[in-house]
Amino acid sequence: MSESRGETLESILNELQGDIPEIEACAIVSVEGLPIVSALPADVDEAKLAAITAAMLTLGEKAAIELGKGELEQVSVKGSDGWVLVVQAGLNACLTVSTTANVKIGLVHIDVKQAASKIATMI
Amino acid sequence: MRKDDKGRIHFKIVFYGPSLGGKTTALRWLYAKVEGLQKGEFTSIEDETNRTLFFDYAPMSAGGRVLFDVFTVAGQKRHRHQRKVVLQGADGIIFVADSSPDQREENVESFEELKMFLGDALGREIPIVVMLNKRDLPNRMSREEMLDLLGLGGNVPIYETIAIQGVGVKRAFQAISREVILKRLYK
Ligand SMILES: Nc1nc2c(ncn2[C@@H]2O[C@H](COP(=O)(O)OP(=O)(O)OP(=O)(O)O)[C@@H](O)[C@H]2O)c(=O)[nH]1
Ligand SMILES: [Mg+2]
After folding, report:
1. Which distant-in-sequence residues (6+ apart) come within 8 Å of B148 by Cβ?
2. B63–A57: do the CB atoms touch at under 8 Å?
3. How many CB atoms are located within 10 Å of the residue A53 CB?
4. Helix and strand numbers, DSSP H then E, in chain B
5. Is A77 within 8 Å of A3 (Cβ atoms)?
6. What is the pLDDT of residues A73-90, one digit of tens each?
7. Cα B173 versus chain centre, distance
8. Mutate to test the pocket of ligand 1, among B14, B20, B42 (most ligand atoms within 8 A of CB)
């Protein structure tokens, strides 16, 4: 298992940021919207990112339910200056990632999903 | 919402709804089965047939400094005063509607009572999610029929649940916790 390699929630976030430098901020947030662990630049507030995550989950869940898309797996937002992704990490938490615009989003998806499934085994 | 002497923030979540709708069952399931929540002791004030006389209460924590004090009300009509007391200070409501067709009236009465007790705050300052419970019943009312009955449009999150099996209960609880945190902690 991932834990046996000495991985922590912090190290998963650090690794993710190391692999994809376009990731500006990432955080693990409980599904209730409470921050668990984060790796953030100085100008991003942890509580704010958690609040945004909660709001995205609420809207995403509503969309998935109302339009018959099944259980929510992820929510993504694209602005002219980048992406915000919220991906479920097991039943109790999710992983929120914010990137710049020039990122290869396909790669981000793969890495973020991998990180999320590791997190799922640890929370 | 209150702060305790350790500086932790408590939010009060109340399961509301008609008698025998499944409120106690849902809270007991959350308490017994859900991982990822730390729980204190479960308190029940009930009669010998397990119907709630005043309330059930279980404190739960999702980690950190935020705690949820989760209550159920006593759904039987004669406990109206007790329900009003338990509702005091509520930060969020989970309304448990009963899908059995013979509980049509009871669902409506209970929901009307809740709206009367909380007035305009319901759905605004005090968020609500609805569980359509007992979806395992072969003769259950349709989702549309129940939403019509309760006069619910698109604004309230609806969860179809089977509390005896735990189906949907955790999602409904996570949803109300999140709504409460969004409203109260991040406003
Ligand atoms: N078939 C079915 N039965 C259920 C379900 N949920 C609860 N019940 C049953 O409904 C009965 C009443 O459940 P309670 O949880 O005690 O109901 P309550 O809402 O707490 O009732 P009061 O305490 O009187 O307000 C019990 O016999 C439960 O086993 C469900 O999803 N499906
Ligand atoms: Mg009860």
Report:
1. none
2. no
3. 26
4. 5, 9
5. no
6. 999 999 999 999 999 999
7. 8
8. B20
Integer Cα distance of B122 and A45 in angstroms: 30
> In this structure, are strands B9-16 and A23-30 parallel, antiparallel, or unpaired?
unpaired
**φ and ψ at A23, to 5 degrees?**
-75, 120
Cα dist. B105→B112, B126, B150, B165 in Å?
Answer: 11, 24, 10, 25
Query: Contact, A32 vs B181, CB < 8 A?
Result: yes
Indicate the Cα dihedral angle B56, B57, B63, B67, nearest 10°. Answer: 130
Answer for the pair A37, A48: CB distance below 8 angstroms, yes or no. no
Only one residue has tokens 């993504």, namely A76
In the CATH scheme, what is the code of domain A3-122?
3.30.450.30
- Output the furthest CA–CA distance in chain A (Å, rounded): 41
Testing ligand 1's pocket by substitution, the residue of B72, B164, B167, B170 carrying the most ligand atoms inside 8 A of its CB is: B164
Encode pLDDT of B117-165 as tens digits: 999 999 999 999 999 999 999 999 999 999 999 999 878 999 999 999 9
Reported ipTM: the value is 0.75
The answer to whether residues B131 and B172 touch, using CB atoms and an 8 Å cutoff, is yes
Q: How far is CA A19 from CA A78, A102, A108, B23, B59, in A?
A: 21, 15, 9, 47, 41
Domains and CATH numbers, chain B: 2-185 (3.40.50.300)
Q: Say which residue the tokens 């349709």 belong to.
A: B142
**Nearest one of B34, B23, B100 to B61, comparing CA atoms:** B34
